[in-house]
Specification:
binds NADP nicotinamide-adenine-dinucleotide phosphate; single chain; alpha/beta; four-stranded parallel beta sheet; Rossmann fold
Length: about 170
């Protein structure tokens, strides 16, 4: 994260998928230490609850398989109900269930890679924009309204947030 003044995250709402340990937990702790409200998700109830308890400030842990759309909706609805907004989504969960040559991967593992690493982040991003901003899809597949104020993500990972046209 780009270092800004420590207070700059005060009152912001951050959702981190896979926040019970590892990189996600590290990212969540940085936000929490800077005053953000933080939601962590993971599959294991005890682990995510313990992670949330260990962090300072207003942090909640929620059980959700990252590819479960109903669970994702529920997480974001919970964040909205509790804090009234969602400013930042950290799509942290990723898996690598296959070791070796890509040509040797079996169908089940390939499906898992696509579901967790590609589908889930897109689904969470879409739900976050819909839930957090109340935006509606416009006819051309984009989003009516502005992109999240706090988002500094590349447009490719923020659906509908288009980069300015390049000069030709
Ligand atoms: N560590 C590295 O050096 C490194 C380097 C480059 C990229 N990455 C990538 O960065 C991401 C995080 O890596 P990490 O090392 O921090 O991983 P990690 O220590 O294994 O932590 C993964 C986190 O994601 C959660 N999780 C895993 N599968 C999930 C699922 N299907 N649904 C919901 N939560 C799930 C885990 O909790 P539960 O098990 O309770 O669900 C845990 O909180 C991964 O995509 C990894 O490939 C890591």
């Amino acid at each position: 994260m780009t270092e800004t003044s420590p207070a700059s995250w005060n009152g912001r709402v951050v959702v981190v998928t896979g926040g019970s340990r590892g990189i996600g937990y590290g990212v969540a702790s940085r936000f929490a230490e800077r005053g953000a409200h933080v939601m962590l998700t993971s599959r294991k109830a005890e682990a995510v609850a313990e992670a949330a308890r260990s962090l300072p400030g207003d942090v909640v842990g929620v059980v959700a398989h990252v590819a479960d759309e109903a669970a994702a909706r529920s997480c974001l609805a919970t964040a909205l109900a509790r804090w009234g907004r969602v400013d930042v989504l950290v799509n942290n969960v990723g898996v690598n269930p296959h070791f070796g040559a890509t040509l040797d991967v079996d169908r089940a593992r390939w499906d898992k890679i696509l579901e967790v690493n590609l589908w889930a982040p897109l689904m969470w991003a879409r739900l976050e924009v819909e839930a957090g901003l109340g935006r509606q899809r416009s006819g051309d597949g984009g989003w009516a309204g502005a992109c999240p104020r706090t988002s500094r993500s590349h447009p490719a990972v923020r659906p509908g947030c288009r980069a300015p046209a390049r000069p030709r």
